[in-house]
C-alpha cells in the first residue's frame, strides 16, 4: 500500500503541513504510524483530493466570482516594461509563471519584485491580481 508522509500529502494537495495535520487530527483523512511517523494511505489521500476538487471552498475567496479556477499564489520576481506592454514573472511554489499585460495594468497593480500576487490561469492566458 502506498503511503505519504504529512509533508508529502500536504504538497500534493497544495496546503500547508499544519493544515494536513489538522485534517488528520479532525479525522477528515485516515492516518497510520510507520517508523514512528504519521502517514496517510494513498487511497484515503486520493479520496480527500477528489472531495476537495468536487466541493471547493470558493465562497471564502475571490475565486467564487472569477471564471479562472487555477489560482497560484506567489511572489513577483521580475517586471520588464516598455511604453505599451509589461512582462511579469512570478514564482508560485515550484512554478515559474510569466504574464504579458499592458504597462498601465502592471503599474496600477503596483507590480514590482518582492510583491505578493496571484496568477490566475485560464486556458493559455495568465491573469495577475493582487491579494
From TrEMBL:
PROSITE patterns: MOP. It comes from the Bacteria. Residues 65-130 form the Mop domain. Keywords: Molybdenum. This is Helix-turn-helix transcriptional regulator. It comes from Nocardioides endophyticus. The lineage of its organism: Bacteria, Bacillati, Actinomycetota, Actinomycetes, Propionibacteriales.
Amino acid at each position: 500500500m502506498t503511503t505519504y508522509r504529512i509533508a508529502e500529502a500536504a504538497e500534493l494537495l497544495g496546503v500547508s503541513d499544519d493544515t494536513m495535520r489538522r485534517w488528520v487530527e479532525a479525522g477528515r483523512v485516515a492516518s497510520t504510524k510507520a517508523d514512528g511517523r504519521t502517514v496517510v494511505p494513498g487511497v484515503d489521500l486520493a479520496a480527500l483530493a477528489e472531495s476537495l476538487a468536487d466541493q471547493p471552498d470558493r465562497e471564502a475567496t475571490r475565486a467564487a466570482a472569477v471564471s479562472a479556477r487555477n489560482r497560484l499564489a506567489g511572489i513577483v520576481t521580475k517586471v520588464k516594461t516598455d511604453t505599451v506592454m509589461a512582462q511579469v514573472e512570478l514564482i508560485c511554489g515550484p512554478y515559474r509563471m510569466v504574464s504579458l499585460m499592458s504597462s498601465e495594468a502592471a503599474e496600477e497593480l503596483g507590480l514590482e519584485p518582492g510583491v505578493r500576487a496571484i496568477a490566475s490561469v485560464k486556458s493559455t492566458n495568465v491573469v495577475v491580481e493582487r491579494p
